[in-house]
């Protein structure tokens, strides 16, 4: 992903520390690799994503490894009107990947953000708000945003 983009993770980190956001955008090599504890949290998030996919067995997994390919394939898959997992939305210089983008009605979608937590946190609202902005600026009509969490 180009460092000039404002991604959801950069935005959320920037809400907590503006200096970190500046470094992420202007000097990303200064950001250390995740330590073992942080990597464990990331890995748990991947497991939660796998569980969430069971909610929509007819859903389509959008490959996420290649940034450009993820964006292009998301555009293709939108026409199939099926739930999409890890859909990538790029509009201008803002970018977000969504846990689940679920079609409803003829031309509307729901965003479902899945968290592994004991409760919904304020930062989660910023998370889905950023996703909604990316989707709507890309031309999608969003009916509602849903925060789902798997209680641990």
Task: Please write out the topology.
Layout: E1 6-7, H1 8-16, H2 18-26, H3 36-53, E2 60-61, H4 67-78, E3 84-91, E4 94-104, E5 108-116, H5 122-137, E6 141-150
Parallel strand pairs: 1-4, 2-3, 5-6
Antiparallel strand pairs: 3-4, 4-5
What does this structure look like?
There is one protein chain. The chain is an alpha/beta fold and 152 residues long. The protein has one domain: Trna Endonuclease, Chain: A, domain 1 (3-Layer(aba) Sandwich). The protein has five helices and six strands, in the order βαααβαβββαβ. The chain has helices at residues 8-16, 18-26, 36-53, 67-78, 122-137, and strands at 6-7, 60-61, 84-91, 94-104, 108-116, 141-150. Strands 1, 2, 3, 4, 5 and 6 form a six-stranded mixed sheet that branches. α1 runs antiparallel to α2 and α1 (8-16) packs antiparallel against α5.
Task: Considering the chains and any ligands shown, give keywords for the structure.
single chain, 152 residues, alpha/beta, Trna Endonuclease, Chain: A, domain 1, 6-stranded mixed sheet, globular
- CATH architecture classification name: 3-Layer(aba) Sandwich
Low-confidence stretches: none
What structural class do helix, strand and pairing data support? alpha/beta
Q: Find the CATH topology.
A: Trna Endonuclease, Chain: A, domain 1
What's the total helix number? 5
* DSSP, total strands: 6
Number of domains: 1
Principal-axes geometry comes out as globular
Radius of gyration: 15 Å
User: End-to-end span in angstroms?
Assistant: 32 Å
Helical fraction: 40-55%
Order of helices and strands: EHHHEHEEEHE
Using the coordinates above, name the CATH class.
Answer: Alpha Beta
Query: What is the typical, i.e. mean, pLDDT?
Result: 88
Largest beta-sheet characterization: 6 strands, mixed
Which range does the strand content fall in? Answer: 25-35%
